[in-house]
Amino acid sequence: MAKALDGVRILDFTHVQSGPTCTQLLAWLGADVIKVERAGAGDITREQLRDIPGVDSLYFTMLNHNKRSITLDAKNPKGKQVLERLVKHCDVLVENFAPGALDRMGFTWERIQQLNPRMIVASVKGFGPGPYQDCKVYENVAQCAGGSASTTGFDDGPPLVTGAQIGDSGTGLHLALGIVAALYQRMSTGRGQKVLAAMQDGVLNLCRVKLRDQQRLARTGVMQEYPQYPHGQFGSAVPRAGNASGGGQPGWIIKCKGWEKDPNAYLYFIAQAPVWKEICKVIGKEEWITDPDYATPDARLPRLLQVFATVEAWTMTKTKFEAMAELNQHDIPCGPILSMEELAAEPSLRATGTVVEVDHPQRGKYLTVGNPIKMSDSLTEVMRSPLLGEHTQEVLTELGLSDSEIRTLRAEKVI
Ligand code: COA
Asked: With a 6 A CB cut-off, is 12 part of the ligand 1 pocket?
């Protein structure tokens, strides 16, 4: 079956997580992604967090599926010549080097345009233009600088980073969208363009409900759905909201049967207003249906923690799956806290290709997360990540280099 991005060639100069997430998505959508790595070393994640000595790490393999790998010293004059051919050959160059690295290599925007005016140059950087534009940035720095850490955690604790890689993978997703939009625009303009996704911007975009709350707080001095209301204090900045829901329907994480021993025996429970009557019936508090202190969402706001404690007394008599099944019979929104162990074993995720088992020549079988975007006419087949330089000969031959030229480059350690 044809793929959405068949025929699109990506010069993949990415490393670590943010850029590779982006190019992996494009590869899953059908693009030919040629990952350029330094000979002898490669993407640093090949050797980070290794679980098998000498074998590409899961960190690397899980971020580089469906790509081809070539080795090339991009600072060597002969390597630069090969890179120039690649720039002419490809549609998009994606990079997430530290600021200025591509320019220092000699591949400025102007130079790339001379070589290939149709080329789209897509970059992840830590920050956009401004005081921090020259800084190197990793995931957690972005979470902190983008507003996530200050709004995550509990009121009486320090700022917290989240497990979801919103700085790296989140920004990779933003960049991928920018790239496909630029490819679409190029169909009418014939021109490439620069696409920038800054990690701070990406995290802030994902935290936009907190900027909403900042302005609500500035206007009213209080946010009634936050756990600080009505007994705690609000300062001038949006506080950490614990497990309070970010939307208009209050929610909280509550214990289920077995919580004493199982750290994930919990359920996210939402006291959605339209099903308040059903909630009261299920937990055995029918009197709350008409009690003026509980009957309306506004009346419940100052009593939310008590409401959740009462629901919890009920959920503690059931496993999270039993509670979920029963609540869903009444259309009451809720969700179990699922561990990675449970997700890895979940048959429905295997059936949809969201969790996939891949075979790797060095490490054997391992699990990965497949393409979360499902398309009816562009199905994703998850292929293993390439070994370092596995496709150097193949790609250089496609670029028109002869076998003897390739042998010379190899002898001179350019590839
Ligand atoms: N041939 C020759 N040189 C190469 C090369 C190749 N194939 N690939 C990379 N290099 C060089 C670069 O040109 C750069 O050289 P320079 O510093 O002399 O200009 C050097 O390798 C190191 O690149 P750099 O990006 O600075 O790596 P780093 O390990 O020092 O920093 C990051 C890593 C992630 C902090 C940094 O790349 C960064 O801030 N990136 C942008 C934000 C980002 O994506 N962060 C999230 C990462 S998950």
From this structure: no
For 217-227, b where at least 16 C-beta lie within 10 A, e where not — what string? beeeeebbbbb
Question: Does residue 92 carry a pLDDT above 80?
Answer: yes
* 146 touches ligand 1 (CB under 6 Å): no
Question: Positive or negative, the Cα torsion across 374, 381, 389, 93?
Answer: negative
> What residue owns the CA closest to ligand 1's atom 12?
101
Tokens of 415: 């590839």
The answer to whether the CB of 223 falls within 8 A of the CB of 302 is: no
Contact 66, 99 (CB under 8 A): no
Question: Which residue's alpha carbon is nearest to atom 7 within ligand 1?
Answer: 38
**SS3 of 366, please?**
strand
Of the candidates 56, 168, 201, 213, the residue annotated as catalytic is 168
For this structure, is 168 an active site residue? yes
369 by DSSP, 3-state: which? strand
CA 288/CA 307 separation, integer angstroms: 10
Q: What is the pLDDT of residues 198-253, one digit of tens each?
A: 999 999 999 999 999 999 999 999 998 899 998 889 999 999 999 998 778 999 99
Evaluate: CB of 203 within 6 angstroms of ligand 1.
no
Residue 139, helix vs strand vs coil: helix
